[in-house]
Task: inverse folding
């Protein structure tokens, strides 16, 4: 019924809201004023997007666990219809340019990385940050019960001193990196061109924007309990899609807090 209503709305407005399963993104034009993940999006419509399954680093299919929908709905500016689609590993679903490839890697400690990169780009062979200047949408799902997870949120949120010490982080952002907090749980991050910052893919010849999500569940945060976190980096040479990609991530992948155990 929801898809039917979307289709009816598209017909009534004289526009096609169902984007094609694949389309080229090489002609995306950079839009001015799209450096903030919280910038208002004008002309939004509810669009039904195709969903592409992610694979492992060796291009094998992931196990069949989880829910893998064929379409998902998301509000986007009408000018971007047909240029994006969803990528999923059955647990997490992120928005990215149409026609790209998605890889999932899982660290030994349980952290999950999703990388949506242009087709033909070598897939990251192991979990970790892509090379400086790498183009793609990069998402990490971890917890503050692990040092790597603490390190992801340490520059942007207040943590107990023992957590910072255990993770060997000082709470300082890299020089040249900018951040703001649209909500107490979310930090928007900008790494200008040439700045090697905390975001995956930063340090190249194009800017990178991202979002760091750390649910401020009390007293878990102040006690140093393990809380689920999520980070996404939009490292595209054309920045038109980034506000939409990050805005969807901030809502769709907001972590359900994990309160079991303590870090350190």
Result:
């Amino acid at each position: 019924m929801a898809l039917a209503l979307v289709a009816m709305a598209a017909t009534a407005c004289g526009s096609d809201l169902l984007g094609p399963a694949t389309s080229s993104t090489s002609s995306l034009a950079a839009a001015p004023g799209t450096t903030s993940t919280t910038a208002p999006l004008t002309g939004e419509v509810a669009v039904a997007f195709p969903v592409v399954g992610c694979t492992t680093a060796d291009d094998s299919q992931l196990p069949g666990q989880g829910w893998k929908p064929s379409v998902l709905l998301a509000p986007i500016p009408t000018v971007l219809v047909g240029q994006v689609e969803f990528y999923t590993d059955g647990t997490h679903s992120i928005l990215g340019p149409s026609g790209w490839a998605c890889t999932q890697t899982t660290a030994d400690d349980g952290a999950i990385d999703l990388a949506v990169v242009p087709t033909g780009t070598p897939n990251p062979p192991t979990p970790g940050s892509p090379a400086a200047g790498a183009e793609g949408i990069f998402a990490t799902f971890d917890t503050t019960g692990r040092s790597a997870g603490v390190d992801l949120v340490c520059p942007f949120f207040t943590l107990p001193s023992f957590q910072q010490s255990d993770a060997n982080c000082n709470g300082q952002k890299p020089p040249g990196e900018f951040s703001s907090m649209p909500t107490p749980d979310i930090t928007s991050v900008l790494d200008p061109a040439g700045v090697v910052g905390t975001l995956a893919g930063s340090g190249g010849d194009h800017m990178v924007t991202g979002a760091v999500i750390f649910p401020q569940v009390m007293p878990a945060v102040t006690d140093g309990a393990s809380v689920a976190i999520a980070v996404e980096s939009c490292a595209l040479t054309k920045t038109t899609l980034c506000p939409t990609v990050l805005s969807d991530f901030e809502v769709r992948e907001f972590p359900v807090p994990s309160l079991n155990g303590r870090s350190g």
DSSP finds five helices and eleven strands in the chain.
